[in-house]
Amino acid sequence: MSNRTFTMIKPDATRKGHTGAILQMINEAGFRIAAMKMTTLSKEKAGAFYAVHSERPFYGELVEFMSSGPITAAILEKENAVDDFRKLIGSTNPADAADGTIRKLFAASIGENAVHGSDSSENAILEGDFFFSKLEQF
Ligand code: CMP
């Protein structure tokens, strides 16, 4: 069951006005939007979402950044969604991202890297459920 992934368009990309262009790339890559909302994460919510990174040195910076402005959260559906989406967005560090990927085009740094993509189907479900009730997942 690896046909869904979860993404956020992060505050940096939102501030720079890249939301529409990123959604267009997601569409053109063949993903169906199964849920979507624009919202702002509180520090508490951002901290909880990234709790797995709480012991990492960049955790404070990550929580600060992810709560610094609006994000767009979405559940995306496609065959092989997790892997195909990670290919579409490129490496976590935009300096290492392949040409034509979302992070190569829109990300500034490893911290402000434009988009999030789930790293497994299990996490995609947990992350999607973090933002959307079952009634909001189509
Ligand atoms: P994301 O895919 O959202 O998952 C965890 C995030 O932590 C990652 O993208 C980066 O934005 C962030 N991150 C990872 N490594 C670093 C780092 N060295 N410095 C700052 N942020 C980082």
Report on this model:
The protein is of the alpha+beta class. It has a single domain (about 5-135), classed as Nucleoside diphosphate kinase-like domain (Alpha-Beta Plaits). The chain has helices at about 10-15, 20-30, 45-50, 60-65, 80-90, 100-105, 120-130, and strands at about 5-10, 30-40, 70-75, 115. The protein has a 4-stranded antiparallel β-sheet with strand order 2-3-1-4. Helix 3 (about 45-50) packs across helix 4. Bound molecules: adenosine-3',5'-cyclic-monophosphate. Adenosine-3',5'-cyclic-monophosphate binds near residues 58, 61, 62 and 92.
Return residue spans where pLDDT drops below 50 for at least 5 consecutive residues: none
Q: What structural class is derived from the secondary structure elements?
A: alpha+beta
CATH fold field value = Alpha-Beta Plaits
Strand order of the largest sheet: 2-3-1-4
Largest sheet: 4 strands, antiparallel
Q: How confident is the prediction overall: mean pLDDT?
A: 97
Number of strands: 4
Report the total helices: 7
Based on CA atoms alone, the radius of gyration comes out at 14 Å
CATH superfamily: Nucleoside diphosphate kinase-like domain
Bound molecules: adenosine-3',5'-cyclic-monophosphate
Give the H and E element order: EHHEHHEHHEH
Q: What is the highest CATH level, the class?
A: Alpha Beta
